[in-house]
Write a structure and sequence with these properties.
The complex is a heterodimer of chains A (527) and B (73). Chain A is an alpha/beta fold. Chain A contains 17 helices and 10 strands. The longest helix of chain A is centred in the middle third of the chain and has 53 residues, at 159-211. Chain A starts with a helix and ends in an 8-residue tail after the last helix. Classes of the chains: A alpha/beta (527), B mainly alpha (73). Bound molecules: adenosine-5'-diphosphate (ADP).
């Protein structure tokens, strides 16, 4: 009878156990999925400034490590702590009922042990694991940094230097990890001894009771069994506390992501940007703009004012570091300005939604970065719901169709990470096609400072002319052809627009800064 | 001025808030069910298996006791 009851209990037990894990795993995977997608959501929306100042590799590592640590965190609580606690408490309660003296002795023993374990884990293990996690982030970041710049490393035969650099970072991690892990061993060692001492004490107590005749052999057997069970779970609890602290110190980065507010926020009453109808492009106004980078030591602009008419083609020139790129970054509101206003068609860009603002602006960067996706997807990026015919049309207009159709997979060709499989000129034309499809009223061009072969150059010029039609265009100009055709040139010098006019007008003045920059070839012009 | 690269340092309270944020929500019942089931199965272990064990062992003839203890563990 007792035997079949035992078997029935065993079976029930295993059913419950299996079902518990079934649901738990479903629950846990879902939680991890949410953490992962939320962290990505957050990280993508952090400001450009944040991304400029954070290693991409570190961000990747923080997110993935945080996710797995959270898994460990909840597993420890669910599969470790929770059952251990029930059993620990249950056994003690049982002892108190059955063999009160032993039970009342066991209670403080268990409590002391748990308290000591938690104390050791929180005060000693946790800070060490935190340090090791920080260094682990740096290891990931350094690795990513080297891999991203691998072409530079190779061209300067810098492998040994990078080995040494990375070796230093990894060595520090080794030191810290060793410290943390060895601490764990020592803590475990200490805990084991405490546990053995406590258990021995309890055992001696029971034997003594039995000897005095105050405990029956049944009590003794029960107590001994209970001791072994309690002892086993105490050992587990000890380990779990350390694990928990390790996990907690590793998830703190992701928790930080979760807590952090974005620094460029839409105003609560932000409206979508409205571009006036019946005109080409959009008007842009800088009204006494004052700006400095948070990391910069001095303001870039004190009070910058300029009016750009709808459809105007403006070229920005000036020595390197004079504030041209900052100008276009501010139009996109990648940074918030400290004073003044930037308006597009009369609307302050700080009062419109960032999404609508960025959708109004197409950007063709110097060195376009392509996704590791097909060419068609890359071109359609600016306007996702396009048909393949529209993609082809845009490619044709950008003079990109020819080389794309020459590829064996055509528009389905995957372009490598950062588009390395295409030449610079080809990537530019893909970017132009992308901008053509996006069809934005404002176009920002950052011209490359290096010249391409004359055939590519010719096609890119043609493609750009096509792209500039009917849009307000702001070009950070390095092509003589571009500045000659510009409606207006803005000459930047140390964060101020010092001169403006057409190429001929500016050159005509022998005392102009433009003339001087032009003569000493400070404009990095490509002829 | 706010440092834009700043990621707030998470305290233990923040980690707790974070955990509860992700544990709650529409999939929460699964976690609760899992906890309940695990609780039951562990409870079965002690309160049914070990709890009466003391009495049971008491009632078993002395010579059979070692066997009973073995079965229990
Ligand atoms: N993210 C940044 N943080 C701090 N300073 C920056 C940042 N970006 C650019 N600067 C500084 O701002 C100044 C103007 O830069 P920029 O607008 O890029 O010049 P240009 O495009 O004319 O070469 C430079 O001195 C540069 O060092």
């Amino acid at each position: 009878m007792a035997f079949s009851a035992l078997m029935a209990i065993q079976v029930t037990h295993s059913w419950c156990w299996a079902a518990a894990f079934w649901y738990w795993n479903k629950f846990a995977v879902r939680v991890l999925y949410r953490i992962l997608t939320d962290a990505m959501y957050k990280a993508q929306r952090f400001s450009t400034d944040w991304h400029v100042n954070s290693f991409a590799g570190a961000t990747v590592r923080k997110i993935t490590r945080g996710m797995w640590s959270f898994d460990m965190f909840e597993d420890t609580i669910f599969m470790g702590f929770f059952p251990s606690a029930i059993i620990g408490i249950g056994m003690v309660v049982m002892l108190i009922i059955q063999v009160p003296i032993v039970g009342w002795f066991a209670l403080p023993v268990v409590v002391t042990f748990v308290a000591v374990s938690i104390f050791l884990a929180v005060k000693i293990a946790r800070p060490k694991f935190q340090k090791s996690a920080e260094q682990d982030t740096l290891v990931g970041a350094t690795l990513a940094d080297i891999m991203t710049a691998i072409s530079t490393v190779k061209s300067f035969a810098g492998e040994r230097r990078e080995d040494a650099h990375f070796g230093g970072v990894a060595g520090e991690w080794r030191k810290r990890a060793e410290d943390a892990w060895l601490t764990m061993v020592v803590i475990d060692f200490l805990r084991t001894h405490i546990r053995i001492a406590l258990m021995t004490g309890m055992l001696l107590l029971v034997i003594w009771l039995w000897y005095k005749g105050e405990a029956t052999p049944g009590d003794v057997t029960l107590s001994i069994t209970a001791f072994f069970i309690i002892g086993g779970y105490l050992r587990d609890i000890g380990r779990q506390t350390t694990e928990l602290m390790k996990a907690a110190s590793e998830i703190s980065d992701v928790v930080g992501f979760w807590m952090r507010e974005d620094d460029i926020l839409d105003a609560p009453d932000a409206v979508p940007l409205k571009i006036a109808m019946g005109q080409k492009g959009a008007a842009i106004t800088f009204d006494q703009v004052g700006f400095r980078y948070k990391q910069g030591d001095r303001p870039i602009y004190q009070s910058l004012s300029v009016d750009i008419k709808a459809g105007e083609k403006v070229a920005l020139v000036g020595a390197s570091g004079s504030g041209k790129s900052t100008f276009v970054k501010l139009i996109q509101r990648l940074y918030d300005i400290q004073s003044g206003e930037i308006r597009i068609d009369g609307l302050n860009i700080a009062t419109v939604t960032q999404e609508s603002l960025r959708q109004a602006i197409a950007l063709v960067p110097q060195d376009p970065v392509l996704f590791h996706r097909s060419l068609a997807e890359n071109i359609a990026y600016g306007k996702p719901d396009t048909t393949i015919d529209q993609v082809r049309g845009a490619a044709r207009e950008a003079y990109a169709a020819e080389f794309i159709e020459g590829l064996s997979l055509g528009y389905q060709t995957l372009v490598g990470e950062r588009g390395v499989k295409l030449s610079g000129g080809e990537r530019q034309r893909v970017a132009i096609a992308r901008a053509l499809l996006a069809d934005c009223p404002i176009l920002i061009l950052d011209e490359a400072t290096s010249s391409l072969d004359s055939v590519s150059e010719y096609y890119i010029q043609k493609a750009l002319e096509r792209l500039m039609e009917g849009r307000t265009t702001i070009t950070i100009a390095h092509r003589l052809a571009t500045i000659q055709k510009a409606d207006r040139i803005l000459v930047f010098d140390r964060g101020a627009i010092v001169e403006q006019g057409t190429h001929t007008e500016l050159l005509a003045n022998p005392d102009s800064i433009y003339r001087r920059l032009y003569d000493i070839q400070a404009l990095d012009l490509v002829h | 001025m706010i440092d834009t690269t700043y990621i707030p340092k998470a305290t233990r309270g923040d980690i707790k808030r974070f955990a509860f944020h992700y544990w709650s929500g529409d999939g929460m019942w699964r976690g609760v069910v899992a906890f309940a089931l695990l609780g039951i199965s562990v409870g079965v272990d002690i309160f049914i298996l070990y709890f009466p064990a003391g009495w049971w062992i008491e009632s078993v003839n002395l010579t059979h006791r070692p066997m009973a203890v073995c079965m229990l563990s």
